[in-house]
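FAQ

Q: What does a record look like?
A: Structure on top, sequence underneath. For example:
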């Protein structure tokens, strides 16, 4: 029986466990335009700093529960009591700077929504509202930053965002489909291109 979790039948750029394969096949590189989802990925990418993505993926559901479903309006209201509660939560990454950054970033995220109508309008403008397709044969060829991620990082830092270095931002861009960086030989590379080219 062949399905998306059948690693023997399909070549993937990454993924060696069910949770990772599901993320690879169904999320990574696929365009996201929902603001709540964009906020979730921005916070999770920041939480990943210095760690592996699989570590974050395994804690993702706990993060959703701890951070009120990644509702930026709720996270923006977190005070010291809530931050201490999160610091005591063993199911998430207990890093005070990262947790504090999530709160700061939520407040700034709301400001961008007010100014641009949505965070989606703001962030996708950096790629002219069209996904960029990578042209990579092997993972070693793939960049960890680009001039666009440098620009976004610089702009977000000027606004006061935390944990938004260029490497984190490029990972975010890959995660939300601003960039399709699946390898050309990957089982979902052409599928995503086809989806992106639909009118």
């Amino acid at each position: 029986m062949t399905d998306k979790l059948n690693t023997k039948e399909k070549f993937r750029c990454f993924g060696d466990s069910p949770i990772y394969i599901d993320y690879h096949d169904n999320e990574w590189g696929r365009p996201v335009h929902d603001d709540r989802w964009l906020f979730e990925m921005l916070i999770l990418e920041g939480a990943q700093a210095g760690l592996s993505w699989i570590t974050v993926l395994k804690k993702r559901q706990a993060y959703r529960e701890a951070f009120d479903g990644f509702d930026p309006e709720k996270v923006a209201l977190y005070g010291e009591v809530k931050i201490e509660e999160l610091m005591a939560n063993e199911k998430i990454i207990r890093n005070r700077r990262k947790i504090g950054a999530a709160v700061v970033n939520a407040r700034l995220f709301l400001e961008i929504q007010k100014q641009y109508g949505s965070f989606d309008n703001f962030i996708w403008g950096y790629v002219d509202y069209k996904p960029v397709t990578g042209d990579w044969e092997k993972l070693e060829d793939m960049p960890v930053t680009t001039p666009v991620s440098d620009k976004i990082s610089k702009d977000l830092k000027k606004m006061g965002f935390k944990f938004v270095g260029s490497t984190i931002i490029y990972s975010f861009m890959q995660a939300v489909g601003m960039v399709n960086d699946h390898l050309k030989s990957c089982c979902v590379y052409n599928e995503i291109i086809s989806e992106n080219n639909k009118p």
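Q: Is there anything notable about this one?
A: The chain has ten helices and two strands.
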